[in-house]
Amino acid sequence: MNDMTPNREERVANLKGLGCKRKRVEDARFTQGKGNYVDDIKLPGMLFGDFVRSPYAHARIKSINAEAALALPGVIAVLTAKDLEPLGLHWMPTLAGDKQMVLADGKVLFQGQEVAFVVASDRYVAADAIELVEVEYDDLPVITDPFKALEDGATVLREDIADKKEGAHGPRRHHNHIFLWEEGNKAATEAVISSADVVAEEMVYYHRTHPCPLETCGCVASMDKINGKLTLYGTFQAPHVVRTVASLLSGIDEHNIRVVSPDIGGGFGNKVGVYPGYVCSIVASIVTGKPVKWIEDRMDNLMATAFARDYWMQGKIAATKEGKITGLWCHVTADHGAFDACADPTKYPAGFFHICTGSYDIPVAYVGVDGVYTNKAPGGVAYRCSFRVTEAAYFIERMIEILAQKLDMDAAELRRINFIRKEQFPYHSALGWEYDSGDYHTAWDKALEAVDYKGLRKEQAERLEAFKRGETRKLMGIGLTFFTEIVGAGPVKNCDILGMGMFDSCEIRIHPTGSAIARLGTISQGQGHATTFAQILASEIGISADKITVEEGDTDTAPYGLGTYGSRSTPVAGAATALAGRKIRAKAQMIAAYLLEVHDNDLEWDVDRFVVKGAPERFKTMAEIAYASYNQAIPGLEPGLEAVSYYDPPNMTYPFGAYICVMDIDVDTGVADIRQFYALDDCGTRINPMVIEGQVHGGLTEALAIAMGQEIAYDEMGNVKTGTLMDFFLPTAWETPNYVTDHTETPSPHHPIGAKGVGESPNVGGVPAFSNAVHDAFRAFGLKQSHMPHDHWRIWKTANKLGLHG
Amino acid sequence: MELKEEILIPAPRDQVYAALNDPEILKESIPGCEELIKHSDTELEAKVVLKIGPVKARFGGNVTLDPSGAPEQFSLTGEGSGGAAGFAKGSATVELEDRGAETLLRYDAKAEIGGKLAQLGSRLVQSTAKKLAAKFFATFAEKVTQAQNQEGEPAETA
């Protein structure tokens, strides 16, 4: 037998464990159209729901007449707030401590708001019927500007809480005010700023946009009235939390609710929250006794389910003449829309925005965030980023550029002299975070060298001269970004959602023949969990990743977890996976010791087996141990080989990276041609370099979209002007530039395998890199700030304002 | 959205003015008009089927006329709702310049639209509105001319 044993190198390769560029196991079905998405679920007798939505952004509802709709053959029911009220379901709590109308109760507060829910035998009948529901509105003044919302005589938006002086996050100072959240030392920061050599001040706006996953939100609710069980299939990024919320809202015991997230076609934060569609489908299924499906169309998705960003960030950054930063001050006016439905950990109404000191050693800082109601859709989700982290990264990376401009200094050098130094980690930031690890100087130098930064600056200077001589109409911009994220929420002591601590979990069963199934509390939406979590486990338990099934998303079988968003799967559930694997290995060691008739301590682990120390020919492989665990009576040990781990991380993880974007801007057409993009990511231990590269490419493309054209724009009447993909920019291969990826590897000291998370880094770092490149192109002409998205029209206007059109 | 245009109608001003107050002529001239009821000299109710881009809807609305400057000028305001398709509000000033046998009609209209119409049709609204207005006045001029010609003949219709 021993002769047949492959050598150690081959055995390591067979595992396809950590570091292996393993092809995604999911892709076999996705690329052949064999995915199983919520809209693929078809249950016998299933009915279909669709919403009557408000065309007005702010109006009182005078009457709703469903007679004509109900007369249409195939229409089963039309639900309004009046029908939900006796059940107490016409309003529902939000994740942010506010409440939200499920169906319009007396008035509507944003365009696209759900007014009535039509249930019909067919999707098309439902769509026809919503046009037959007659709703009479009395329009009210519309507020789409958060600054106007806070003016003295501003129209009261939320009449239900107009007199409430206290909100979920402290005092409310105006009827359209939600909260003021503050961190840091305001007095000390203002003192530093008032006496500083140099202060750069700017309003940096991160516009409203939308995660716009290719698959929109939807669900199928199926109430089995015989056994009292509710099954809810849906596009849920946090299925277990949805089950708990569904139980609390409906009064159905939690064991009688099964929530299933099937394949999900992208989430990006859009699928974290609880939406009226879910509640109405459940109610409709209970009322009719039949399964009810609700699937958003694209306009529904862009208009009504969670948006992202919309942060007006007023900043002041102080420095010495030499460029050493001495203080940072920031005040945010945050437009939360009609209801505060942000998906943030309970204690953090502005998420982790206070990571806004970035990668820099800033001695004193202050941040204050005012949440404001407007007549826009609710949301404020973390669109491919941890909670408000991409807003924070954009803010500090713009402020650094503006400071460099004011100091007349090279922005790369300004960053270098202010970086937190390697020996300062773990680093305590002025706003209260403990950065676990980092080596910023090494990453920065590697990045600058890789792109030949000095050469680029020289070329840029020459181009500028040529432009001034009238030889070219194209300017060159070099967009620099060095970002630090805070991901992997999070420690239960300070992170929870609706009271549920933000731990995560993994449960492993080893089968008798040496293969395994691992179930996790997270849910993949395209991240490739089935591929990468099997790799983590393979390296821990010595079973090939090809022999490990990873299953997520069914609350009847998976252990409880808080789900997938905020780059938390690898930092939290990945850690649980490694630790559950170690529990398996600990028991396996005892079994191996029995089988080899040696003491536990006489064994050592070697890739896929336990070997007797000093006698390498005597060993038991994991497969042999697994078999023994099921067929031998081992004294003192229970049969079987299973383990479960619930992991409460001691800290967040802090991935970082250096991105450099080079573009040529035609000042006459406003077209920005991105000719080079270099992305260096440090996500700690790299589980699967191919999956990382895929994540970085996808995230950079979303960053490109956001920075260069994607937005949810409203006109003054509160009309959503970007409600279809004709107006909402979703890049295709045509607009997407070539990316060069690179890495350094600084493992997280507290994570069991040192991994930090990477899925969101390219969005966090990418947006400022693209935007800084646009600004940098015009730096020589004095441009300080021009707001995103930098579409051709806005770039042209910038050039025009700077007098570049002659 | 603003619309401004002028058109020469081959009929005297008083006839043009009368036609603009004639529900039958208006109904035939307004593209997609299914129903036009005159409640009083200054109040009209209309049902119009409109198609803008992918949105087709039946709009029901009210129009209020202000004839205080007649016949040189009159103004109107109106609002209509197309249910799920959205809504529209607007006002217009119409000036009629006497040019003997002809009349120069100038209009200056402002409109606000909301709902699906505004979202889906925003790129098309301006051009569609222009097209509809052009169609209206073309038909209107035709109807006025017809009416004028018929006047010379023995009365056939009421």
Can you describe this structure?
The complex is a heterodimer of chains A (806) and B (158). Chain A is α+β, with helices and mostly antiparallel strands and 806 residues long. Chain A folds into three domains: 2-35 and 504-647, Aldehyde Oxidoreductase, domain 4 (2-Layer Sandwich); 45-140 and 216-264 and 271-304, Alpha-Beta Complex (Aldehyde Oxidoreductase, domain 3), CATH 3.90.1170.50; 307-489 and 652-801, Aldehyde oxidase/xanthine dehydrogenase, molybdopterin binding domain (Aldehyde Oxidoreductase, domain 4, 2-Layer Sandwich). Chain A is built from 20 helices and 35 strands. A seven-stranded mixed beta sheet of chain A has the order 3-7-1-16-13-14-15, with helices on both faces. Chain B has 158 residues and is an alpha+beta fold. Chain B has a single domain (2-147), classed as Alpha-D-Glucose-1,6-Bisphosphate, Chain A, domain 4 (2-Layer Sandwich), CATH 3.30.530. Chain B has three helices and seven strands, in the order E-H-H-E-E-E-E-E-E-H. In chain B, strands 1-7-6-5-4-3-2 form a seven-stranded antiparallel beta sheet, covered by helices on one side. In chain B, helix 2 crosses helix 3. The longest helix of chain B has 37 residues, at 116-152. Classes of the chains: A alpha+beta (806), B alpha+beta (158). The interface between A and B is medium-sized, with 25 and 18 residues.
Point out poorly predicted stretches of chain B: 154-158
Unreliable runs of chain A: none
The CATH homologous superfamily of chain B is named START domain
Q: How many β strands of chain B by DSSP? A: 7
> Tally of extended strands of chain A?
35
Describe the biggest sheet of chain A? 7 strands, mixed
Structural class of chain A: alpha+beta
Largest sheet of chain B: 7 strands, antiparallel
Strand order of the largest sheet of chain B: 1-7-6-5-4-3-2
User: Mind telling me the C-alpha Rg of chain A?
Assistant: 28 Å
Oligomer: heterodimer
The overall average pLDDT of chain B, rounded, is 84
